[in-house]
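Residues and backbone
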Amino acid sequence: MATIALAAPPPGRVVVARFGPEVGLPSAQVRALAMGADGLLYVGGEGGVCRFDGARCEAVPLIPGAEPLTQRLVNVQGVVYAQTRAGLWQIAPGAPKQLTTSGEARPNAGISPAAAGGVWVATGVELLRVQDGAVVERRDTFGVEPWAVLDRGGTLYLGTSDGAWTLGDEGVTPLANLGVRAFLEDGEGLLVAREDGVWRLLHGAWTLVRGGCYATDLTRRPDGRAVASCGSGLVWEEASGEWSLATPKEGLPASILTRALVDQDGLIWAGTLEHGLLRIDQTDLRLWDDATGINLRHVTSLLPYNGGLMVGTRGGLGWVSPEGVLQPLRLNDEVLEVRHLASAPDGAVLILRGREGVLRWDGEKLTELLALDEDASWVGARPDGEVVVLTDRAMVRAHNGVVRRVELPGRALEHLAALDEAGAVYVIIEDKLIRVHDEGVTVVAQSPGRCSYAPLAMRGGRLYAGCGDTFYLLDGAGWRAVQPLEAGSISSMESLGETLWVTTTSALIQLGPSPRRLSIDDGLPFLSFVLGGPITRVGDWIVASTDSGLLFLRDAPRPAPRPLVARVASLHVGDRRLPGWEALGPDDTLLRLRLGVDSVIDPRRVRYRFRLDDGDWSAEFSEDLLHLPGLSPGAHRLELQARLGGGPMGETTTIRFTSPPRWHQRRDVQALAALSLAWLLAFTWRERTRRLTEELRRLNEQEAFREVFGRFVTPQVADEALAGRLSRQGERREVTILIADLQGFTGLAERLDPPDLVELLNHWLTEMVTEIEAEGGMVNKFVGDEIVAIFGAPLPQPDHADRALAAATRMLAAGERLRASLRRPDGVELRFGVGLNSGEVIAGCVGAERRLEYTVIGDTVNVAARVQALTRSVGKPVLITEATRARLTAPAVLSPEGEHSLRGHRQNIVLWSLSGPGAA
């Protein structure tokens, strides 16, 4: 179906990382940013300036006692200048040095490169031009107090709290009467950050670029597009010329943004007044994890529709309009569980609800198209309008009211299918690929490999499959492995026009016609793609399902990232650097590596290797620590290399040092130690091997026994028995007994065939046991259609009465679901009663010497059975005794049912019934 571009950016948030004082920032207030020639990010704020390498921010020392508040940082031809309350400083390269005094620089003043050389500094009273560490020129600002300055070919532009001005020899000329914070050259004109937005000044005319924000700073990407900090948000220029805005709603922390900066790789950095330093990894990546009632972590299908996007999940169905607004869709106020979505030839949407069948959405209403009585998870539409549904064992086809069923020669593998242009369906059945068409079923080939999950896709009339981590193409000779993806197991595949997209467990890959890969090394956030999660295109965005929500990726060429090269700059022992020919002490065996890099990087992506004295290179390692024990005395030569991600190794750093002899390096000591160690190692190895083999055999036998034993007793009893904590002598326990029984089971046995009866009974028992075990109960035994469950044994449970009542409530709800799903044409329905009683019992293993059973004995059990029998005459599905009600600690809605006599009991007993939904 043809789609149009979204009328607004897709929903979701941009990908943001936050860095604060925990990484060494002087404070959470960041007022200045600059990129140094060394590739490090210089960060300034309330506590001074530091150099940030992506992991730690190292303080830049100024004069002791100087006011550290930093307002501006700028890089001019490799020199980093800092404007502080202690004046103007040159902080890189080399040691920091003060260029002006504190009386000549005020807060909010600006720095700009000067056309005549050096930099202009706006002091709030005048302009200073600083060059080679000295003030070489002063300019009167004629009463204007500038906090922004730009030298454009000798013309000076000033920004103040009152407006913008140009400065000449005779005075100032006004340009605007609103506060200006920053200028940025923009072709023939200027971009201006004003308190009412971002404006363009061209030939004396002002044009609003982006309004509705207090712009505080301007910077530019490597491709020329502009970025601005904007009060509580960030704005940037798209490739189309439009401007996008990111605010706390889109993922930024709720804080005032003060500065923006773009590094060499196009990553946007922003300073804030409350949340430290922010890094916006990609503005063409959006992660949508807020779905207004639809759980986007369980997305089952995506479908472009009417310029927007249909989203199907396990918990609902919705449509994202072209304006990025989610509209939930419901049928008779029912929340839909969507298994798959497909487009019909007439533009309608087919909605598969698994066992419930197929619905049709025409843009205004939902109607039922096909009813099913078996589970299904894939739907498609042929060119003639025929609807095709794939189940475990069959292909169901419906057209013009006629339904046909084609049995499959095996079990469909994970319900994955592909539809070709002729309307035939390809699906993998166990170890074969089959084609289902008008004439029947044809075996095309064997499956591509031994895999339990194999997504399929059609592109250009050719069939592709994923198996494990390998991508396959079907040709005349069978399956041909095109390439291993080397990015984890393949999760899903989708043909989007001429492009084939694949997700693996950690990457999003475009296989053709222009190969492209996005993983955490390429700027993708740390996400896992959902197994079988859908992929689609809406407008110029690719949408994929991840474990954190929907990922939107702009489907447009992205500039190739600049290769990053890491270099080990120095080696340290504690706080001491090894400059070369340094003598190590006897205990100096743990060395720390320090990097010199050409970009701000994540140190977790760095890999190192070394070699000693021209030996072999070591295996790569990720820690920045090097352990060199047992060095021979004398001079040594250590070579170190580092690399980033999948990049090349950087240049080699060579460190020379000497190592003193140690007592254990004496030859006689070494010889004796070697003999002793060899004997000890041989003995230890044999003994550890024997013990390990015996322990593995015991563990394997215990696990196999537990697996078999656990199918005949509950997991709790199996664990207690294997641990030796079940006593045959018995013990007194206070418990709550739950007994549930199918009503009218004898009549059901007479009306149903044995297979139907057993299937019905197994359905009921499975559902009831699930709800009992969900509340921590132990199913003790089955007596025909009766279930006996214990709460409080063998493991103590102080709230056993609450758990038992909660289990009964869950059983009622499960019973309602069973009655709805197992409704039969012969009118057979499941009705059951539940009785609860609490009290003291004798618990333990009872039976013969060779056959034991863990059970409970006592009048409490008998009373529970009598109470369960009264559910028929009282007409309530759940009855509890006064003894159980008295032990409840959680609130419960109960109704009194008066006193009743029990067979075998002298005194009457007070009963209560469960009130609420499903209890009538």
Notes: Residues 708-712 have pLDDT under 50 and may be disordered.
